[in-house]
Amino acid sequence: MSQTVDSLAPSPTPVLSDRINTMQESQTIAMAKKGRELAAQGIDIISLSFGEPDFQTPQYIKDAAKKAIDEGYTFYTPVPGYPELRQAICDKLLRENQLSFKPDNIVVSTGAKQALANAVLSLVNPGDEVIVFAPYWVSYEEMVKLAEGTPVTLMGTLENGYKVTAAQLEQAITPRTKLIMYSSPCNPTGAVFSREELAEIAAVVARHPQVHVLADEIYEYINFVGEHVSMAQFAEIKDRVITVNGFSKGYAMTGWRVGYLAARKEIASACEKMQSQITSGTCSIAQRAALAALQGGRTSADEMVTAYRRRRDLVLELVKDIPGFRTPTPSGAFYVFPDVSGYFGKMMPDGSVIQNATDLAMYMLNDGHVAAVSGDAFGAPNCIRFSTAAADEKLREAFTRIKNSLAKLV
Prior knowledge:
The structure is a single chain. The chain is an alpha/beta fold and about 400 residues long. The chain folds into 2 domains: about 5-55 and about 300-405, Alpha-Beta Complex (Aspartate Aminotransferase, domain 1); about 60-295, 3-Layer(aba) Sandwich (Aspartate Aminotransferase, domain 2). The chain has 13 helices and 12 strands. The chain has helices spanning about 20, 25-40, 60-70, 85-95, 110-125, 140-145, 165-170, 195-205, 265-275, 285-295, 300-320, 355-370, 390-405; strands at about 45, 105-110, 130-135, 150-155, 175-185, 210-215, 240-245, 260, 335, 370, 375, 385. It has a 7-stranded mixed sheet, with helices on both faces. Strands 9-12-11 form a 3-stranded antiparallel sheet. Strands 1-10 form a two-stranded parallel sheet. It is globular and about 60 Å long. The chain starts with 17 loop residues before the first helix and ends with a helix.
């Protein structure tokens, strides 16, 4: 009798690689998946788990994409991106960041996440140490592990807005340190490094010529304190900085999947080689839309930032009414990241005990029907990340539910 594939005896050796078996699933995606599963059961879930603008992509960008289809942009693209898009990125970096690059320093990728992965895989050898400023975006450590590097977590304090200091960095660097990874504005904390803070960090890096910096600037436009400073602005280390940015956050283009990096030619060429073997060039239509986004300026982005600032202020007022939340004021991005450890050890209505932030996040999902992400995912196990990229009425309802759910804990 014939057997189906599923009924065949298991292989005597593991089928999946150690690489995939040891890799953690993105907890932001995992929590969003749980929320969707409950929503499919008819439960009204308010999701504050995803880092995604709730705005539509501006119409002029959509129109450019439609025009690109009609004009026949339907073929493979150059691996590092269309030349005119790379030139527009160079123009943007010079105009807004005082960074001078040529198109062959730019690699356009399928989102900033791929740009980060390209850089890590191109730079890190097995055993190399990568210092990751924490709290960090969920994928940084897993990218380092994929490259067989050793992630070294460096935690900023709540009192300093979760920002790592130059003194901390100096103590953490060893002869095996190859790379530093950080974001500013930061996901998940919303912290923004000042010029003075980055200058001090750059001075430390300058003393260690083997160390490179991977600067994630994807939230650049969502900044509530004014000046955005790029690490590559510091002349003494500019050739050792890889600047990553993209279009998802500032232009509400998450689904278009366009990001880029800017680096010295040796590193950019390595990232191009890496990308050539994994995805090749980014979607032609999305690249034309990205070109239009840059040519259209920052007006639409600035309008969205006005809304994000209002929502941040609204949420900060709402969390004041929730005892046990210690919430620093975010200076950028669209998250709040309170320390919720005051609830650890409390008992839920079913008699089980909140042991950690993951338990608390699951409780809020199941009882209050609000999805958020445990700080474990970001290297900060005492915290929970709430996205503020939702309409005002959704935010009010969400934090009312959270307050009511937490009041049931004893």
